[in-house]
Amino acid sequence: MAGNNLKEVSAEYLLFEAKREEKFITGSEAVKEAILRANVDLAISYPITPQSESMHLVGDLYAEGYVKDYFRGENEFAVMSEVAGAAMAGVRVFTATCGPGTLRAFENFPMWAGSRLPIVMAFMTRGVNAPLTIQPDTIEMSFLLDTGMIMLHAENAQDLYDMILLAYDVAEQTSVHLPVGVFVDGFFVTHTRQKVKVIVEDVKLKSYDPSRSPMPTIDMETPPFRYMRDPFVMKSNFISYAAHASWQQEVIAAMYRSKKYLEKYLGSLIEQTNTDAEIQIVASGTAVSQARAAAKILKEEGIEVGIIKIKSIRPFPTEEIKDALKNAEKIVIPEFNRAGWLAKEVASTIKNNDRIVHGPRVYGGMTMPPEIIVEVIKKGTLIGV
Amino acid sequence: MSESITKPNPYFKEYLPQEYKDIVEKEAFKKNKSFLDLGVVKELLEEHPLCAGCNLALSLKLILVALPNPEDTIIVGSTGCSSLALAQVGIHNIHSLFGNQNAVATGLKRALSIRFPDKVKDVVVMAGDGATADIGLDMTLHSWFRKEKITTIMFDNEIYANTGGQESGMTPCGRVVNMAPKGKKFSKINMPEIAKTSGCDYVAAVSVAKPKSVFSSVRKAILVAREIGPTYVQIFTPCPTNLKIKSSEAIIVAEEKVKQGEYPISEYISPQAEEYLKNLGELSQ
Q: Does position A9 have pLDDT exceeding 70, yes or no?
């Protein structure tokens, strides 16, 4: 296997020290570059636009000997169950999907978190039916907020590359051991070329050690072999309810424990510019890039605007957001979806949330010209409201 | 699993529960047990919360004693009556979602092949008729099409028993059950035939009333799945609770229906599997 020629290194070395070079590549190619270094045992694919190309390229890595096993599953529900079975047996896995595929697979995500599986997967977000759409839209993130999964939102191909790699180290911590979804806006990032600094040294992430799992690895090597005298379900008594309730609480606690590991790589869960400005834009994903362009236009007109980029949606940076917005007069939250899930998250976090303008929002595949953000900021309210 | 894993630390031995000592001393993981050993050896399932006279519970005991390699076997289950008993089996088993058992088993088997390339790890799916032939049918079939080396065992009680007796695809045509108030309108799904055409190298339909045939079909299925390809065993386990059969008569019904030709018994062995089993000789009996 060609992968054997790469030297195993720690996540810290891989992300902070390994030699990098700038390449002009698409987001899908950035996924390939990340998986090349991730030392993945098993990757499972299923086609859906705009995700497919990423998993073609991961398939190429398998053919080249950098991924030990790879196949195309029968549908997304099955694929998510297949990676779950593999993760339970103690190997490192990768898969990706988007939009309708996310919804078809949905039942698996809380099961992954509840089973404490350190699965890393990418979501190349797109709209959901009906009517049929294949266009960019982040609506699926709204549905996934309470699955127990860690959710990172990449702004660009560089974020996507780094977040996939760091996700493995965070997911596999014993005190975390949860799935991580790396979300990236489909087409805008996956199908465009950007400058990405990728690792060029002959190194890869050190192998997954199944003994780090807080749950017994299902391999008949790791006791206990019998979990329960009585299964939780079907027992109508307080002990069984309490067992299930505390299990759920532990999943959420583990998700919040991931924060310090995320901060090691991401710095803060948020990134701020122009912190003193009275007008603040809060955004995640490519909406951040659009906000930057809007801020530039406004600066030329003498209007100062701050930008708060949220990198981690789960865990949500509650304290950071409270602090960053404590003096803001107006908060504008541009989003690529109809639901406005980020605005709702921020609104439930800060005091005096009538400072928030819930928008602008574009969806159905529309782009977000910086001018509409500029217009909302100038009017101080949504256009046409 | 190495034997040292179950061997008690001598200093702790006296503090271990009797049940654990029995596992070690009465050889729960002993290879090549016979179904005639039931009741004498330490069983992998002793207590279970299933109904009195449950044919599924009996067939599960027969399956467990038939495992050729229990210390290196992993069970993948699904939602339903069987999931309640499987949680109490003394070997690693998974319940994840309703219907995804063959998909989970696929990933698990491939992962174990990566981690233990020189060791035999048998992966055995055990699920009901609803999980195997209705909600999980696509994943059952695709694991067979892909020739995944796993054994699929269906507990066929011809009904959704755990949810209160609803029609399943395996319910015989015409039977009046919940959600089929005027009787089921289509035939029982012919899973053994589907398994054969979908790539299984060993297929058997047996009745729980014939312990020897359950035992030998399970053993052959697991051995063939190791080397040749996917295998399928369907065990007729009529449900006393939902079919309103007296507990003491449940097994008689399992026998009578077969005698009357209402439940077809069959066995298919592919030429490669036949050759393989012949070379194994006594082990496969």
A: yes
Mean pLDDT, chain B, rounded, equals 92
Hey, is the C-beta of A14 within 8 angstroms of any chain B C-beta?
no
A53 in contact with B at a CB cutoff of 8 Å? no
Looking from the CA of A77 toward its CB, the CA atoms found within 13 Å total 17
Establish whether the linkage from the previous residue to A315 is cis, with ω within 30° of 0: yes
Q: What average pLDDT does this structure show over A284-294?
A: 98
- Tell me the CATH number for domain A270-379: 3.40.50.920
From the list A158, A129, A135, A124, the residue with the least C-alpha distance to A56 is A124
- Two tokens at B274? 């036949």
What's the pLDDT at A385?
A: 42
Q: What is the DSSP string of A314-357?
A: ES--HHHHHHHTTT-SEEE--BSSSS-HHHHHHHTTSSSGGGEE
Tell me the shortest Cα–Cα distance from A216 to chain B, in angstroms. 9
pLDDT tens digits for range A328-340: 999 999 999 999 9
* pLDDT tens sequence across B60-100: 999 999 999 999 999 999 999 999 899 889 899 999 999 99
- Chain A residue with minimum CA distance to B47: A229
Per-residue DSSP letter, B36: G
Residue A219 to residue B74, Cβ atoms within 8 A: yes
Query: Could you write out the DSSP letters of every residue in B78-138?
Result: -SSHHHHHHTTSSS-EE--STT-HHHHHHHHHHHHHHH-TTS--EEEEEEEHIIIIIITHH
pLDDT above 70 coverage of chain A, percent? 97
CA distance A249 to chain B (A): 19
Domain range summary for chain A, segments of one domain joined by +? 2-211, 270-379
For chain B, give every domain's residue range.
Answer: 1-30, 33-284
Asked if residue A166 lies in contact with residue A9, where contact means CB atoms within 8 angstroms, the answer is no
Of the partner residues B90, B115, B142, the one whose CB lies closest to the CB of residue A226: B90
Which tens digits make up the pLDDT trace of A354-371?
999 998 999 999 999 999
Handedness of CA B250, B255, B257, B263 (dihedral sign): positive
Q: Do domains A2-211 and A270-379 have the same CATH topology?
A: yes
Task: Tell me whether residues A74 and B142 touch, CB distance under 8 A.
Answer: yes
> Is B284's pLDDT higher than 80?
no
CB < 8 Å to B104, chain A:
81-82, 84-85, 88
Q: Do B107 and A44 touch (CB under 8 A)?
A: yes
CATH code for the domain defined by A2-211: 3.40.50.970
Residues 158-197 of A with CB under 8 A from B: none
pLDDT of B34? 83
Q: Model confidence over A49-69: pLDDT tens digits?
A: 999 999 999 999 999 999 999
Residues on chain A touching B109 (C-beta within 8 angstroms): 85
Residues from chain A contacting residue B116 (CB–CB below 8 Å)? 219
Q: Is the ipTM of this complex over 0.90?
A: yes
What is the pTM (predicted TM-score) of this model?
0.95
CATH number of B33-284: 3.40.50.970
A276 band by pLDDT with thresholds 50, 70 and 90: very high
Å from A226 to nearest chain B CA?
5
